[in-house]
Amino acid sequence: MKKELLALFVSTPDDHYYIYETGTLKCIIEKLSFGRFSLLTTLQADRETASFVDHLFIHHSDFVKRSYVDHQELCIVFKADTTKENFLAVMKELHDYIDVHHLLQVCNHCHEVKPLSYVHNEETIDLLCDDCFTSLTETSYPVKSLGLLSAIVLCIFPAIVWPVLHDLGYPIILDGILFGICSYKGFLLLGENIDRKGLGLSFLAVVITLSIAQLFAFAFEITQVFQTNFKVTISLSQGFAALPDFWGADLLGVALTYIIPALMFTLITLFVLYRNYKKRHNHRHAFEKLTIDYEK
Q1: Does the reported pTM lie above 0.90?
Q2: In this structure, are residues 31 and 20 in contact, taking their beta carbons and an 8 Å threshold?
Q3: CB distance 53 to 7 below 8 Å
Q4: pLDDT-based confidence at residue 139 (cuts at 50, 70, 90)
Q5: Can you tell me the distance from the alpha carbon of 47 to that of 212, in angstroms, rounded to the nearest whole number?
Q6: Residues 6+ apart with CB under 8 A from 124
Q7: DSSP 3-state assignment of 41?
Q8: Beta-bridge partner residues of 289
Q9: How far is residue 265's CA from residue 106's CA, in Å, rounded to a whole number?
């Protein structure tokens, strides 16, 4: 996003979002990756409006990456090299269309024409009417730390897979994906909701269970060493008892060779699942009305 555009926008407490208003139209500006940014607003949209928005993309494709209408929400994504003149040209065209067709803004939750306010939570900024703001604020969805317990329980399954298939070598690190899915789903069982704290606890459940699984893998390998080299059969518990005699920097290095990549797969999996969850359940994070300082 070019610096000249920032003069048109009003800052918010979240560095990724700005406010832009033209006439009575309230808009939210979101910073995207690679210098791109999007304009989000709400309208009484129909097929004709959707066609007009498609026309915006076709007419201004040099600096508009895409534009669409979805459930009364209008979005225009601008390219990184968009200038102030480019942006204002699109907004004038949009504003003229709204005036000609007498379109009104709607609440982004109930989709009814009502006075709107900017509201925000830890995840997003939205346009809501007072009724929806009140109902969403009064509905509490706390994250329960008890979710750590259910995450650990569900991680038992990939933890069993880890020592059983450890002889496969590096392919076993893909078990990290299964750890991520099980810890995430497990946390929601008793945690009921998940936020960044819940995400951290889910990852902690993986670290705990994966570490234990690796110890089992080592103990199992010790039993195989005795069987192969000494023709002596020992139990898994005896393998655990012998583990301190084998422990050292070399063994730890071998463990980390598998554990660290597996944990990376776990983090990626948790991140993807959490992003999808946020899109579906933004209302679970308490909203507050946004105070806008128009002097900035």
Answers
A1: no
A2: no
A3: no
A4: low
A5: 57
A6: 17, 278, 282
A7: strand
A8: 119
A9: 41
Q: Answer yes or no: are the C-beta atoms of 33 and 95 closer than 8 Å.
A: no
Question: Which of 18-22, 44-48, 270-274 is predicted least confidently?
Answer: 44-48
Token pair for 46: 């129909």
Full DSSP string of 169-180: -GGGGGHHHHHH
CA angle 268-272-276, nearest 5°? 170
Nearest alpha carbon to residue 121 among 133, 105, 111, 109: 133
> Is-contact 37 1, C-beta < 8 A?
yes
Return d(Cα 202, Cα 185) in angstroms, integer: 9
Return the amino acid letter for 125.
I
CB distance 187 to 150 below 8 Å: yes
Q: Is the C-alpha dihedral spanning 241, 244, 246, 249 positive or negative? A: positive
| Residues in Cβ contact with 99 at an 8 Å cutoff, skipping those fewer than 6 apart | 23
Percent of the chain having pLDDT more than 90? 45
Q: How far is CA 41 from the centre of its chain?
A: 22
Pick from 87, 75, 78: nearest CA to 32:
78
Q: Considering only CA atoms, which of 78, 100, 99, 102 is closest in space to residue 90?
A: 78
Phi, psi of 121 (to 5 degrees): -135, -165
Instruction: Give strand pairing partners of 39.
Output: 29, 76
SS3 84: helix
On whether the CB atoms of residues 55 and 68 are closer than 8 A, the answer is: no
Check: CB of residue 251 under 8 Å from CB of residue 194.
Answer: no
- Calculate the average pLDDT of the chain: 87
DSSP 284-295: GSPPEEPPP-TT
- For residue 25, the surrounding DSSP H or E stretch is strand 25-31
